[in-house]
Amino acid sequence: MSVRELVVLGTASQVPTRHRNHNGYFLRWDADGILFDPGEGTQRQMLRAGVAAHDINRICVTHFHGDHSLGLAGVIQRINLDRVPHEITAHYPASGRKFFERLRYATAYRETVSLAEGPVAADGVLAETPSYRLEARRLSHPVESYGYRITEPDGRRMLPEKLAAHGIAGPDVGRLQREGEVDGVTLQQVSEVRRGQRFAFVMDTRLCDGVHALAEGCDMLVIESTFLDEDGKLALDHGHLTAGQAARAARDAGVRHLVLTHFSQRYTDAGEFERQARAAGFDGELTVATDLLRVPLPPRTP
Does this model's pTM top 0.85? Predict the structure, then answer.
């Protein structure tokens, strides 16, 4: 049985707090696992959340500010200590290669795992697998930053009434799915397109074209909302979003489940982020993230 869920490892911006670890997010996508923005303390948060080094297939870093990347050293060394048997690919802004290398070799350890590097230098597709396409889009932040989007290929949903009308039953249904045609009946005649699921991860950024492109039509959007709306000037100056801006972007993109995260330590009432997001007109499913929260992706649309 496939599992698609977001495991929130940390939600604090800039510095950890008593209740929030540095950033860290793990996406289970069937048999694959993608670790996003491992900030300081991610290795321990993985342990607490039941995420093993063996679960990781990719690491995606949006940018090289410490709250999004200082955990790389520990995670990479844990991957090697546990002798993960499969190759892991790390994606990060190409301009930050020197930071990645410093973190990868921050201390002495024995390399036992193949860690491939996939630096991101421009918008585009980074990887294609049977279950998803991974893309990156440039964001607007004082240092080079990219957001990531995962898109499942569209499939087909079989229509029982049309199968029956064409006399297709039993093993012939599977044969039709594999071969595309059985006894003159085509797959298109007895099925409809099943839209693939879409997930986007948007961290430190001002509103920009990249935000809207990444969010478009997503089943789940994980997005920073560092500031509340009354601090919009601070958000603009430092390259961040407010709760209202993030919610309006999600509303306009038709997002089904919005996950707000990356909160400034200046705020003590997390409920205000939800209130401002609702006031901005987002009426879909909404989660204000907390550390160690597990959030399932919404079921596929009918």
Answer: yes
- Give, to the nearest 10 degrees, the angle between helix 72-81 and helix 97-104: 50
Task: Give the N- to C-terminal CA distance of the chain in Å, as an integer.
Answer: 19
**What single string gives the DSSP state of each residue in 91-141?**
EEEGGGHHHHHHHHTSS-----S-EEEEEE-SSEEEEE-SS-EEEEEE--S
d(CA 5, CA 164): 35
Q: Which residues are catalytic?
A: 67
Q: What is the distance between the alpha carbons of residues 2 and 152, in angstroms, rounded to a whole number?
A: 13
Q: How many helices (H) and strands (E) does the chain have?
A: 10, 18
Give the pairing type, strands 185-186 and 181-182: antiparallel
The continuous run of DSSP H or E covering 8 comes out as strand 4-10
The DSSP call for residue 300 is: P
The model's pLDDT over 73-125, given as tens digits with 9 standing for 90+, comes to 999 999 999 999 999 999 999 999 999 999 999 999 999 999 999 999 999 99
Structure tokens at 62: 């949006």
The rounded mean pLDDT for the chain is 95
